[in-house]
Amino acid sequence: MVNCTIDGKKVCVPEHTTILEAAKEIGVYIPTLCYFKGLNEIGACRVCVVEVEGDQRLHAACNSPVLEGMVVHTNSKKAREARKCNVELILSQHNVTCTTCVRSGNCALQHVANDLNIMGESFPKDLPKQKGSKSFPLIREYDKCIKCMRCIQVCDKIQATHVWDVINSGGKSTVDVRDFYRLEDSPCSLCGQCITHCPVGALRERDDTDKVLDAL
After folding, report:
1. Where does the 4Fe-4S His(Cys)3-ligated-type domain start and stop, copy by copy (predicted)?
2. Each residue's pLDDT tens digit in the chain (216 positions)?
3. Fewest CB atoms less than 10 Å from the CB: which of 12, 158, 183, 216?
Protein backbone atom coordinates (compact mmCIF):
# COMPACT_ATOMS: atom_id res chain seq x y z
CA MET A 1 0.00 0.00 0.00
CA VAL A 2 1.08 3.57 -0.70
CA ASN A 3 0.34 6.64 1.43
CA CYS A 4 -0.01 10.06 -0.15
CA THR A 5 -1.77 13.39 0.39
CA ILE A 6 -4.10 14.97 -2.16
CA ASP A 7 -5.41 18.48 -1.51
CA GLY A 8 -4.66 18.07 2.18
CA LYS A 9 -6.46 14.73 2.45
CA LYS A 10 -4.48 11.62 3.30
CA VAL A 11 -5.19 8.46 1.32
CA CYS A 12 -3.79 4.94 1.32
CA VAL A 13 -4.11 3.04 -1.95
CA PRO A 14 -2.60 -0.05 -3.60
CA GLU A 15 0.72 0.35 -5.38
CA HIS A 16 0.48 1.49 -9.03
CA THR A 17 -2.79 3.36 -8.38
CA THR A 18 -2.89 6.55 -10.45
CA ILE A 19 -3.28 10.00 -8.92
CA LEU A 20 -6.68 10.25 -10.61
CA GLU A 21 -8.00 7.03 -9.08
CA ALA A 22 -6.55 7.90 -5.68
CA ALA A 23 -8.28 11.28 -5.83
CA LYS A 24 -11.60 9.59 -6.62
CA GLU A 25 -11.21 7.45 -3.50
CA ILE A 26 -11.42 10.56 -1.32
CA GLY A 27 -13.93 12.50 -3.42
CA VAL A 28 -11.48 14.92 -5.05
CA TYR A 29 -12.58 15.87 -8.57
CA ILE A 30 -9.99 16.10 -11.36
CA PRO A 31 -11.39 16.91 -14.83
CA THR A 32 -10.61 14.60 -17.75
CA LEU A 33 -11.42 14.39 -21.46
CA CYS A 34 -9.45 11.58 -23.06
CA TYR A 35 -9.34 9.25 -20.05
CA PHE A 36 -11.43 6.09 -19.93
CA LYS A 37 -10.44 3.58 -17.25
CA GLY A 38 -8.89 0.40 -18.60
CA LEU A 39 -9.19 1.61 -22.17
CA ASN A 40 -7.59 4.99 -22.74
CA GLU A 41 -5.05 6.24 -20.20
CA ILE A 42 -2.60 8.04 -22.48
CA GLY A 43 -2.79 11.56 -21.05
CA ALA A 44 -3.30 13.07 -24.50
CA CYS A 45 -5.56 15.97 -23.54
CA ARG A 46 -3.49 17.19 -20.55
CA VAL A 47 -6.68 18.38 -18.88
CA CYS A 48 -6.05 16.31 -15.75
CA VAL A 49 -2.65 17.87 -14.94
CA VAL A 50 -1.84 18.32 -11.26
CA GLU A 51 1.04 19.74 -9.27
CA VAL A 52 3.29 17.49 -7.18
CA GLU A 53 5.39 19.04 -4.42
CA GLY A 54 9.11 18.87 -5.15
CA ASP A 55 8.65 18.52 -8.91
CA GLN A 56 8.59 21.44 -11.34
CA ARG A 57 6.73 19.40 -13.95
CA LEU A 58 2.98 19.02 -13.98
CA HIS A 59 1.78 15.42 -14.00
CA ALA A 60 -1.11 13.91 -15.94
CA ALA A 61 -3.18 12.44 -13.11
CA CYS A 62 -4.68 9.73 -15.33
CA ASN A 63 -1.41 7.87 -15.90
CA SER A 64 0.90 9.01 -13.10
CA PRO A 65 1.10 6.51 -10.22
CA VAL A 66 1.09 7.75 -6.65
CA LEU A 67 4.33 7.31 -4.72
CA GLU A 68 4.92 6.95 -1.00
CA GLY A 69 4.76 10.34 0.70
CA MET A 70 3.66 12.16 -2.45
CA VAL A 71 1.86 15.47 -1.88
CA VAL A 72 -0.46 16.45 -4.72
CA HIS A 73 -2.27 19.71 -5.39
CA THR A 74 -5.05 19.31 -7.94
CA ASN A 75 -6.32 22.87 -7.88
CA SER A 76 -3.20 25.01 -7.45
CA LYS A 77 -2.81 28.17 -9.53
CA LYS A 78 -0.17 26.49 -11.70
CA ALA A 79 -2.38 23.47 -12.38
CA ARG A 80 -5.50 25.57 -13.03
CA GLU A 81 -3.71 27.89 -15.46
CA ALA A 82 -2.19 24.99 -17.40
CA ARG A 83 -5.51 23.16 -17.47
CA LYS A 84 -7.33 26.24 -18.73
CA CYS A 85 -4.72 26.87 -21.42
CA ASN A 86 -4.94 23.26 -22.61
CA VAL A 87 -8.73 23.42 -22.87
CA GLU A 88 -8.55 26.76 -24.70
CA LEU A 89 -6.17 25.19 -27.23
CA ILE A 90 -8.57 22.29 -27.72
CA LEU A 91 -11.44 24.74 -28.22
CA SER A 92 -9.44 26.58 -30.90
CA GLN A 93 -9.63 23.41 -33.01
CA HIS A 94 -13.23 22.61 -32.13
CA ASN A 95 -16.33 23.90 -33.90
CA VAL A 96 -18.18 25.39 -30.94
CA THR A 97 -21.76 25.17 -32.19
CA CYS A 98 -23.10 23.91 -28.89
CA THR A 99 -26.73 24.95 -29.30
CA THR A 100 -27.20 22.79 -32.41
CA CYS A 101 -24.85 19.96 -31.44
CA VAL A 102 -26.32 16.53 -30.64
CA ARG A 103 -24.18 16.39 -27.50
CA SER A 104 -25.19 19.77 -26.08
CA GLY A 105 -25.72 19.37 -22.35
CA ASN A 106 -24.02 15.96 -22.44
CA CYS A 107 -20.59 17.03 -23.69
CA ALA A 108 -17.43 16.51 -21.64
CA LEU A 109 -15.65 19.45 -23.29
CA GLN A 110 -18.59 21.76 -22.64
CA HIS A 111 -18.67 20.64 -19.00
CA VAL A 112 -14.93 21.15 -18.46
CA ALA A 113 -14.93 24.55 -20.21
CA ASN A 114 -17.81 25.69 -18.00
CA ASP A 115 -16.01 24.46 -14.88
CA LEU A 116 -12.93 26.47 -15.87
CA ASN A 117 -15.07 29.56 -16.54
CA ILE A 118 -13.90 29.85 -20.14
CA MET A 119 -16.12 32.53 -21.62
CA GLY A 120 -14.35 33.41 -24.88
CA GLU A 121 -11.66 32.31 -27.32
CA SER A 122 -8.01 32.97 -26.45
CA PHE A 123 -6.48 31.41 -29.57
CA PRO A 124 -7.25 31.83 -33.30
CA LYS A 125 -9.57 29.22 -34.76
CA ASP A 126 -7.85 26.47 -36.76
CA LEU A 127 -10.61 24.13 -37.87
CA PRO A 128 -10.06 21.26 -40.33
CA LYS A 129 -11.67 21.83 -43.71
CA GLN A 130 -12.44 18.17 -44.39
CA LYS A 131 -16.11 17.20 -44.41
CA GLY A 132 -17.47 13.77 -43.57
CA SER A 133 -19.94 11.85 -45.69
CA LYS A 134 -23.60 12.17 -44.71
CA SER A 135 -24.62 9.05 -46.67
CA PHE A 136 -23.22 6.52 -44.14
CA PRO A 137 -25.19 5.78 -40.93
CA LEU A 138 -22.13 6.80 -38.88
CA ILE A 139 -21.30 10.48 -39.36
CA ARG A 140 -17.87 11.94 -38.61
CA GLU A 141 -17.64 15.66 -37.81
CA TYR A 142 -13.97 16.48 -38.43
CA ASP A 143 -14.19 19.99 -37.00
CA LYS A 144 -15.41 18.68 -33.64
CA CYS A 145 -12.76 15.99 -33.04
CA ILE A 146 -10.54 16.73 -30.03
CA LYS A 147 -8.07 13.90 -30.80
CA CYS A 148 -8.72 12.10 -27.52
CA MET A 149 -8.11 8.72 -29.24
CA ARG A 150 -10.99 7.01 -27.43
CA CYS A 151 -12.56 5.85 -30.70
CA ILE A 152 -9.26 4.29 -31.77
CA GLN A 153 -8.86 2.44 -28.49
CA VAL A 154 -12.40 1.07 -28.28
CA CYS A 155 -12.37 0.03 -31.95
CA ASP A 156 -9.00 -1.73 -31.60
CA LYS A 157 -9.16 -3.18 -28.08
CA ILE A 158 -12.86 -3.99 -27.69
CA GLN A 159 -14.32 -4.47 -31.16
CA ALA A 160 -11.07 -5.48 -32.93
CA THR A 161 -12.26 -3.91 -36.18
CA HIS A 162 -9.41 -1.35 -36.38
CA VAL A 163 -11.37 1.29 -38.26
CA TRP A 164 -9.77 4.44 -36.80
CA ASP A 165 -6.16 5.63 -36.66
CA VAL A 166 -4.06 8.76 -36.23
CA ILE A 167 -3.02 10.20 -39.57
CA ASN A 168 -0.48 12.93 -40.41
CA SER A 169 1.84 14.31 -37.73
CA GLY A 170 2.49 17.36 -35.59
CA GLY A 171 -0.12 20.09 -35.73
CA LYS A 172 -1.75 18.42 -38.73
CA SER A 173 -2.39 15.14 -36.93
CA THR A 174 -5.97 14.01 -36.69
CA VAL A 175 -8.10 10.90 -36.31
CA ASP A 176 -9.48 9.38 -39.48
CA VAL A 177 -10.31 6.06 -41.10
CA ARG A 178 -7.25 3.79 -41.16
CA ASP A 179 -5.24 3.68 -44.38
CA PHE A 180 -7.25 6.60 -45.81
CA TYR A 181 -10.25 4.43 -46.65
CA ARG A 182 -13.65 6.00 -47.01
CA LEU A 183 -15.78 5.13 -43.99
CA GLU A 184 -18.18 3.35 -46.34
CA ASP A 185 -15.34 1.06 -47.49
CA SER A 186 -13.91 0.40 -44.03
CA PRO A 187 -14.55 -2.72 -41.90
CA CYS A 188 -16.90 -0.68 -39.67
CA SER A 189 -19.66 -2.92 -38.29
CA LEU A 190 -21.80 0.03 -37.10
CA CYS A 191 -21.63 -1.22 -33.51
CA GLY A 192 -21.85 2.36 -32.22
CA GLN A 193 -19.11 1.98 -29.60
CA CYS A 194 -17.05 4.86 -30.99
CA ILE A 195 -20.10 7.13 -30.77
CA THR A 196 -20.77 6.04 -27.19
CA HIS A 197 -17.17 6.66 -26.12
CA CYS A 198 -16.69 9.97 -27.96
CA PRO A 199 -16.73 12.73 -25.29
CA VAL A 200 -17.95 15.36 -27.78
CA GLY A 201 -20.09 15.40 -30.93
CA ALA A 202 -17.38 14.34 -33.38
CA LEU A 203 -19.09 11.00 -34.01
CA ARG A 204 -22.83 10.56 -34.23
CA GLU A 205 -25.47 8.39 -35.84
CA ARG A 206 -27.34 9.68 -38.88
CA ASP A 207 -30.79 10.93 -37.95
CA ASP A 208 -33.43 9.39 -40.22
CA THR A 209 -36.39 10.42 -38.06
CA ASP A 210 -38.00 12.54 -40.79
CA LYS A 211 -37.65 9.75 -43.36
CA VAL A 212 -39.31 7.29 -41.00
CA LEU A 213 -42.16 9.68 -40.23
CA ASP A 214 -42.68 10.35 -43.95
CA ALA A 215 -42.87 6.60 -44.57
CA LEU A 216 -45.54 6.02 -41.91
Report:
1. 78-117
2. 999 999 999 999 999 999 999 999 999 999 999 999 888 888 889 999 999 999 999 999 999 999 999 999 999 999 999 999 999 999 999 999 999 999 999 999 999 999 999 988 889 988 888 888 888 999 999 999 999 999 999 999 999 999 999 988 777 788 999 987 888 899 999 999 999 999 999 999 998 888 888 888
3. 216
